[in-house]
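Listing S7. Sequence submitted for prediction.
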Amino acid sequence: MSQEFTSNALEHTNSKIPIYLSRGYEAYCLGNLNEAASFYNSALHVDPKNWDALKYLADISVKLKNYPLAVSYLYRLLEINRNSASVYNTLGYVLKQLNRLEEALTSYFLVISVTPDFPDAYLSCGDILFALKRYDEAVGIYDKAIALKPNYFEAFNNRGVALKELKKLDEAIASYSKAIELRPDAYEAYNNRGDALIASKRLDEAVLSINQAIAIKPDYFKAYNNKGNALIEIKKLDEAFHSYTQAALIEPTNPRVNFNLGLYHLLKANFKDGWVGYEARLMDPDSSVFTRNRSFKKPLWNGKDDLRGKTIFIYAEQGLGDTIQFSRYIAEVAKEGASVIFEVQKSILKLLSSLDGVTTILAKGDEVPPFDYQCPLLSLPALFKTELTNIPPIARALLVPENKLNEWVIRLGKRVKPRIGLVWSGSTIHKKDHFRSLNLSELIHLLPPQFEYISLQKEISSLDEDLLRKNQIKHFGTELNDFTDTAALTQLMDLVISVDTSVAHLAATLSIPTWILIAYSPDWRWLLDRTDSPWYPSVKLYRQTELNSWDTALKQVKLDLEKLA
């Protein structure tokens, strides 16, 4: 074959590239994406580095959601031009869809390095930083986007979301308000602002903001659900029920609203309907209540299948207090004839090691032996058809090691007065901690001097540490190595006064007189308008009578302490 013929053939083949590109673009514009891809691939067959063919093939792959293929085309484009901001931008989007967030972040930062005045790239960086829970960095990047584009609605709105996660609530509300100013019909921003106002305990304002979202979008599920949450906190229960019901009409199968309806019924002691709704937590992939940490090949026990001769795996799913409270159901399962494997949080493994009904107890993360059925712990009340009249007795087999008790007897020293344990704040990551906790300064000046007071909290602020020292209240902090230490110390108290935390459940399960301070809108398990608890005989409840005010409850605590003294 002559060189002249080869050259002519190559020129002839190259001459087809414009035709392939033209036909490909025509099919692309008509929405015939697979046909367009065929023409562009023909162009690539002739010229593997053809920019237009690669670019459109990447775009088609994105539109068809074939993200791995899109990545391959985008990397081939970057081999041709390492400084293409548009390619880095698309690559960042695609990698985000593949949940390769760190790589996506790098790609967006490369967009910024090539084009520093590209506000959308800053927004995308901020969104990925948020997804990575790097909230402070996200806010900083959103600020840069806003500096480039002062009327950037999305940046103000998303910045508000990040600020709320940082618990900078006033700043979050201001950011949402600016977003609303820029786009007065943005129903999402009104709802987001309402959510931040709920967290700020500005509940009437929250309802107003959420109502504005509903006025703009009458079928907005999230707003009705959020409004129900706000109304629950101000104990407008019938209105909350109506709002949740409206949400359920819009999205009948949504687990979040069905769970909230369940909580409403449980709070009102309508356990039959309440347990049904409470099970919806298992279906919510974003639930902060239920931890979906595994999938099982073995079936979920339905409460009807015969367990005689079978092994069932029951696992804690929520907080320490929930595990302690509902561990009473393990004995009920064992009565069905089952061998029970019980998985709990590592910090309370020793405490529950002698629990009635347990065959094997494990810490989360331990290897699980073979089993026939599985069940999350807090589904057991529903399966046993629990009502106020048939709540199982508390688990009496909490094991506080004798050596631990002896250690704490020595640490506490000689008893000169009756001892009262104090817990005034819970975990800051708890969704409703801002409602249930109080400032130590509110409590401490009401305590009569006839008692010795002991802090049962492990972690406290430096301000609280100073207050305890000035008032000669013992605090052991880092000496509480695990929950058996807390249990030993608690068992040596004559009385425990606590907000609604795991220590309250611990003290009540140890049958120690326990006075629990309850927020205006209580957790469902404390029900409404009663001073006792059907779950714990030794508990007395002191309730807020006004939203955000502990005055009445604490004054009653003081009066009752003075009677004891």
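Caption to Listing S7: primary sequence and predicted structure tokens for the chain studied. The domain at 291-396 is CATH 3.40.50 (Rossmann fold). The first strand starts at residue 311 and ends at 315.
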